[in-house]
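General statements about sequence and structure are easier to judge against a single worked case. For one protein, we set the task of working out the structure tokens from the amino acid sequence alone. This step matters because it turns folding into a mapping between discrete strings. The amino acid sequence and the backbone structure tokens for this protein are reproduced below.
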Amino acid sequence: MVITWTRGTIRQSHVTRGLLAVLIFCLVPGGPSRAAEELDSIVAVVNDDVIVQSELEHQIALVIPEIQGRGTALPPRKDLERQVLDRGHHQHRLS
């Protein structure tokens, strides 16, 4: 293993990094197929803020009862997602 100290950081050779990545990949419970499981995905970037799918789902879960409480029909899912993202974008600009 080649490790050098440069400007306060540790740099390893590309070979070492590759071997370390393979080792970590294989040690993940459930094997390599488990390691490749998607945890969350980015759905939008507003200025410097990243919005992930789980945050969008949470906001949609909060909005649905509001819409239903007004007696309004729910829009198609993709339209609802866009509206929630647009509303979040406008709220972010106001704060």
The chain has four helices and four strands. Residues 3-35 form one domain. The first strand starts at residue 3 and ends at 6.
